[in-house]
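Possible regression after last week's pipeline update?

I re-ran a chain I had predicted before the update to compare outputs. Posting the input and the new output here so someone can diff against the archived version. Not blocking, just want to make sure nothing changed silently.
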Amino acid sequence: MGYLWVLQLIFLPCAGISIFLEMTHVEKLSALRAAMKAKGIDGYIIPSSDPHISEYLPDRYKCIAWTSGFTGSAGTLAITQDFAGLWTDSRYFVQAVDQLADTGFELVKLKVQGAAEYADWLAKKLPAGATVAFDGNLASVALAQAVKDMLTPVGIVVDGHTDLLDAIWEGRPTLPTEKAYLLDLAATGASTKTKLDQVKEVLKAKRADAHLISSLDDLAWVLNIRGRDVKCNPVVLGFLLIEGTQQTLFIDPIKLDASDVESLKAAEVAIKPYSEAFTAIKSIKAKQILLDPKRTCFAMFDAVPDSATIVEAMNPSTLLKAVKNDVELAHTRNAMVKDGVAMTKFFKWVEEQVATGELTEMSIADKLQALRAEGDAFVDISFDTIAGYLEHGALPHYKATEDSDAKLKPTGLLLVDSGGQYLDGTTDITRVISLGNITPNEKEDYTIVLKGTIEGSMAVFPRGTRGYQIDAITRRPIWETLRNYGHGTGHGVGFFLNVHEGPHTFNPSNVDIPVEVGMISSIEPGLYREGQYGIRIENLVHSKVLTQNEFGEFMDFETLTICYIATDLVEKTLLDQKHIDWLNKYNAWVFEKLAPHLDVETQKWLQEKTKSI
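New output (post-update):
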């Protein structure tokens, strides 16, 4: 189930023809082990990444999916001659068990999300003198260093420059050639020149005279450029090198129109072929170059000549990008109206059609995308829609396939987590609705999660508060009932960019990034009963200044998402009056914002859904 196949050319000389046979994952694993043996490699690591350390990948770099069949967005393969494992976190445990069946790979459950626990396993399994290799184009500097730190002290040799896949991946996809395009000042609120100047101010403070931007969303933000190279993320493959007063964009020239080239040149950005980026780094003349170890691949990092000192620091654009300007916020609010209209029409349609027995998880995801596409300036969905009915809702990153596609019935809970990419903003929203016959336990769980969403949304906090503190505020009413969830409470969201955006995050990790004014984040607590149902209620919020007094500056959140929160699932006795007031006020606001954009019948339907409890 969910396998990605490669075609292997087999010649039949007797017949005088050739046919294609599918190479199984077991055969791919055997081919990898043969290549390892031939090169004297005892352990091989395949991360889920590309030369830009992206979360979502162009087809060419979907190496884990091709090798093992696992299609989740987070995981690492570690292979020896007698074991092949996928290390991933709790979001993907059920999916991994399913997709890895009969592939030769086994699930290894991560204890800490994102940790290089496979390196610790290799350190214990392999003898001193063994060699562990990986492709430095697919590993961040931070990951490569973590592997070295664990393996080198026990005498294991680490080789970060070996790509074993390319030779055995017949028909490997080429890099995308879709056209890129520039956004104008009216869309972005800041010119490319202004953004470059902001980045250079940080470089000056860090005493760096050069900087390489590898991460695609950072590049897109600085240059006000967008593309179609990665599904759901409006980015374009490229590197941006800032060296002194010179800026060079390394990109496939076919992607840019002549007018775009001229606009970039007017912003003092030169254009060179994508393939020349590594050569440029190898010959760089700068004394100090700033590289982000989390957002730069090891191969590029290792190409920096000894004559240059590497300053390891976060890309300046990563924080600059996270803080939205007034123009971006105004556009985003407009996008939220369009998205709310689509969501309203969608849930009304589901409610009216579910009794027909014709709705499935895949068909409703298609319908939701079609409704979003009716909105002005719609470009794409912002991630694959998670439409989880009953037990599928308990899988936080579930995606329906032809084999798993459940038929909806007028009973139980439906969880829908989805989003849109509009020219004027990025959306991400999760709602749970009742299809009928709801149990008291389901209502109780729903209400407890809703309390968490409301507590996070109502939070008032001093400036300088970190994301893990917002996470704890949101979880408190859920913890009080001895419940919990295994994912983070929230993430940053881009402006017509990646739906997952750093550097801040709302999760238990001690990430030392304050919540800044102007950031857009999700608040999405959940609760999952494996084999039964899942609940998650998600809104996007904008962090803003509330007031200043003798105790300092205090902040709160403006809720941006405009879609009703179902009240027929609420057990009112579990809510305090402040929660009831917030819910009633929110739903009334939703009706007020969306009603002018709906027909009379849909207005009446939404008015009923947003009635005070």
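Follow-up from reviewer: compared with the archived run. The longest strand covers residues 539-549. Marking as no regression found.
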